[in-house]
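can u pls check wat happens w/ zinc ion
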Amino acid sequence: MMTETSAEVLAERASFRAELLDSGLLVHGGADGLYQRSGEFEGVVRGVEALASRAAEGNGGARYYFPPIMAMTDFERTDYLRSFPDLIGAIEVFTGGDAEHAAMLFAAEEGRDWSESLSLADLALCSAACHPLYGRLTGELPAGGARYEVQGYCFRHEPSVDPVRMQSFRQHEFVYVGEPDAARDHRDRWLERGFELLASLGLDVQVEEANDPFFGRAGRLLAANQRATALKFEITCPVSSTQVRTAITSANCHESHFGESFDIRTADGAPAHSACIGFGLERIALALVRRYGTDVARWPLAVRDALQQ
Ligand SMILES: [Zn+2]
């Protein structure tokens, strides 16, 4: 779905991007939506992460940091192939011998497509930070379900010059897997907690009902259903534009989607329900830069204290 973006919004985004690059907080990574982060920017990201961890008050569950790639068999079970084919990425590798190598180099030297020499590996790029978790939960959960605090890099193939739309970014998530009521409760409590946390940093945040960008004609139905059943909420904030708000955190009920695909069952044998809140670490850091400027040392003391800067 294409939406018209006004010239004014485009200009705002371009000027924010220039500010980020000129200050050195971010360095252009050579492709749209790809950035290298300075130590100063990363410091803010880690401050936000620590703040979110503290908000769990010791009940966030076991904490795991995932690699940016996951097993293809698990990736296929997330259903992203069906729902978001335009956003996904898979990994190709070279498995040939000398002859195939020579053909690949020859094609590369001639400026032709050398990717024909590659084949799909059994690995995909993670689309969401919680995805790698579900594959290992196949089987029966303990009574009352389980909580996890997880973080990982997410890949979304949507090249853009809007600095909030990165192709590679991190989500810090709090996930619950277990009973239906407890899943919704987890989502609702974390939505409130997340809102308070972000508002406490002085960000102009709002909670908004939302839907995922499901692909194609069938996707429109899925999106409408997601809204009708209030499964997804976003915490939004003006970041690269004063007129278009950006989601900096999202809180989701997956119902039994992952429970069924990954065969995760509650203690009474029913497919588990799950829910997660994902703090968009780079987007929150960008929202803070937008609010307080590119010189982190000059941010208000209370904000720097909260972020341990
Ligand atoms: Zn998640």
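The mean pLDDT is 96.
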